[in-house]
Amino acid sequence: MATSNTDPLLRLRQSIAANETPIATSSPEPTSDATENLAVATHLQFDNPHFSYPLDTPTRFISSNKPVDLRSIWFAWEKKDVAIPDYIASAQELNEKLAGKDGTPHVQNLVFVERLDLITWLEGASEESEYIKGLESEASATLSAQVASGATGGVSTVPSGAAGTRGGRTIDPRLQEIYNGERRMGDRNSVLRGIKPTDFSRVRKIAETFLSRSRPSKSLTSVANTSLVSLPGKPLINPGKPSSHRRPDPIILLSPSASSLLRLSNIKSFLSEGLYTPPTTSTHANILHLTRLLPTIDPHRPLRFILVDTPEQFKPDYWNRVVAVFTTGQTWQFKGYKWQDPRELFKEALGVYVGWRGEDLPASVRGWGRGVLSVGVEKWNPGQGTGGRWRDREVVEGVWGRVEEWMRGKGWGKEGLGNG
C-alpha cells in the first residue's frame, strides 16, 4: 500500500509546489545522466530526499478503469501547455519510438477532461480529483484518530519541516487533517464543467443578442422576433416569423493530426473563401462556425455548420448531425468516435481526404472505398503565396457539392434532419 512518502503522484505534486522539478534518467543511480528523451529514460529521480521511481510504476490516477503509469503522467505534465492535436501527435510519435523496446512500454493518451483534471491537481489549484484514488496510509489514519481523540495536538507549533503544503504555503499537519475532512463544494472548473460536458451555446446566443442591441446600426428589439442573430461581418438571417424550435446545425469533424493539410487554423478560409493556406499553430480555438447556402436543401436560408477536431464534448445525439469527416488516412483519429471502424463510419458520414495534387493516395484511404471523397490541391509555394491559387475554388465547390448530395440523401431538409 502506497504512503505519502512513497506515492509517486503525491511526490511529483510536492516537487512542483516546491519548484524542484524531477529529472528523467536512464538508470536509478543518482549519478546517471539526465535525459529529455522519454523513449530512452527509465526512471524519474527526485531530490530532498533523493528517491528514484521507475517510469513504468502504476499511479493512483485511473483512466478507463486502469492505473496510468508514471511515464504517461510525466509526459502529460511536460505537454501541459501544448494544444490537444500537438499533444496527441507527440504521444503517437513517442509510442512509435517505444514500440521497439523490450516490454513494449506505452504512453497513454489522456483525453481532454482527464488531462485538465490531472494538471489542475498537480499545480495545486484543486485538492481533489475524480480520477485519483484516495491515498490509504496507515500513518495518516493513526494521526487522524489521535487528533480526533485529543491524544495529540495542543497549541505548540510543529516545525515547518514536518508541515505539508497548501497553495505553496507550509501548514501544520493537524490543520491539514482538518482540511482533509472538509466537504468539497467544487471549484470554478468543476462548477462550470461538472461531471458531464455542458452545452452553453444558448447562453452565448443570449449574450450575442445583448451585444447586438448595444450597436446603433444593428439593434434588435426582441429575442423572440428572430431565431438567428447577426454577427460582425455576417448578414442577418431572419426567417420572417418565429419558429417553435431551432434548426440543428450539421457538424463537420476535422483530423487533429499534425500532418493534416486542413486544421482549425485554415479550414474556414478554405471552405468559405475557396483559398488554401498552410495551417498554423497560433490558434487556440477548438470550435468554428461557418454558413453555406445549399439550394437543394434550403434555397432561402444558409445552413450553419459546426467544425471541431475532436468529439470529446459530444452528446449522443450529436453523432446524428455529423455530415462529413476530414481524414488523413490514420485510423487513430477514430478513437473515441461512435463508429471506430472506417468502413462503418463512412456509411454514416461522408469521408473527405485532401492531399497534394499529383501525389498517390494512402493505401488506407483507397481501401475505404467510395465512402471517401479524395481531392488534391496545388502544393503551397511560399514565394508565390496566395497568388494563382484559382484551382482551390474548384476543389472546394466539388467538396460542397458532395456534402450537399450526401445530406440530401440522408434526409436533411429545411428544418433539419428528416424534416423537409
Map the helices and strands:
Layout: H1 8-17, E1 23-25, E2 43-46, E3 51-54, E4 58-63, E5 66-69, H2 70-78, H3 84-98, H4 112-122, H5 138-149, E6 164-166, E7 169-171, H6 173-180, H7 188-193, H8 201-213, E8 251-253, H9 267-273, E9 288-292, E10 303-308, E11 322-327, H10 342-348, E12 350-356, H11 363-367, E13 372-377, H12 391-409, E14 412-413, E15 416-417
Parallel strand pairs: 8-10, 8-11, 11-12, 12-13
Antiparallel strand pairs: 1-2, 2-3, 4-5, 6-7, 9-10, 14-15
Keywords:
15 strands, six-stranded mixed sheet, three-stranded antiparallel sheet, alpha/beta, 420 residues, 12 helices
Name the overall outline: globular
Q: Structural class given helices, strands, pairing?
A: alpha/beta
Low-confidence stretches: 138-145, 147-163, 217-244
Q: Helicity level, as a percent range?
A: 25-40%
Largest sheet: 6 strands, mixed
**Would you tell me the overall average pLDDT?**
79
Give me the count of strands: 15
Question: What gyration radius follows from the Cα positions, in whole Å?
Answer: 27 Å
Order of helices and strands: HEEEEEHHHHEEHHHEHEEEHEHEHEE
**Strand arrangement in the largest pleated sheet:** 9-10-8-11-12-13
The number of helical elements comes to 12
Separation, N- and C-terminal Cα atoms:
62 Å
Beta-strand proportion? 15-25%
